[in-house]
Amino acid sequence: MDPDTKRDLHSLPKSLAELVGKHIVAAGMFVEEDPERAYAHAVYARRKASRLATVREASGVAAYTVGKWQEALSDLRAARRMSGRDNFLAIMADSERGLGRPERALEIAHDPAAEQLDAEDRIELRIVAAGARRDMGDTKAALAELQIPELKERRARPWVARLFYAYADVLEELGRDEDAREYFARASSVDSEGVTDADERLAALEGVELVDIDIEDGIVWTDAEEPEEPEEDEAPEAGPAAPRERD
Asked: 3-state class of 222 per DSSP?
């Protein structure tokens, strides 16, 4: 349990704090592998302690993972108002996209508070902003949203891989396949946690198919369209044996 949640729970009676804390922990445990289960735990915690910022944040994130966009926005706005934290702006913006409101997503993405976010949260917000631009049919503007200094990053971090991948995806949509190859390759090289399918996207652009990954030898590729092997010619029927030459 993170320090902010522990601090918030101290404001509750001990028995209630323990109960709510268990459900918050469960929501965090299941949010990726079983989002519906995580959501159920988060909703229960919210019913018991809706005035705690960390509970509303957990509930908002859980609602987002199951596509309950309006509920996610309501909880995250409340959490932001209570705590003053801005680290979930990307989820709020993406929820606006889910509701079909890309313009509002862009308003959140360009909130002055975004400049104070840490690198990971700031990059996620830029990726959402690019998505909102694409929702509006402006792919060039989507590319501009992602043209930030972190495109020069070389360290293997999930948010770096996601930035390179998003940039490559927009480049491909713009028909800039050579540049897209470069950034899918960069995404692949820093994606140590497998958060993207950059290998497969790069393979598609190269016209090859990823067939195996060997830990020691690296990625093994094969032609996507392997030529059919020619049928072996049938041996001619044996004719009568040639007469042996006499000495």
From this structure: strand
Single-letter residue type at 158: P
Q: Determine what percent of the chain is predicted with pLDDT higher than 90.
A: 68
79-106 pLDDT, tens digit per residue, is: 999 999 999 999 999 999 999 999 999 9
- CB neighbours (10 Å) of residue 207? 9
Q: What is the pLDDT of residues 38-69, one digit of tens each?
A: 999 999 999 999 999 999 999 999 999 999 99
Q: Rounded CA gap, 17 and 5, in Å?
A: 10
* CA atoms of 12 and 116, how far apart (whole Å): 31
Say if residue 236 is exposed, middle or buried (CB neighbours under 10 Å; 0-12, 13-18, 19+). Answer: exposed
Helix or strand run (H / E) with residue 212: strand 208-214
pTM score? 0.80
* CA–CA distance, 241 with 128 (Å, rounded to integer): 80
Partner residues linked to 213 by β-bridges? 219
What sign does the dihedral 93-94-100-106 (CA atoms) show?
positive
The answer to whether 210 touches 203, Cβ cutoff 8 Å, is yes
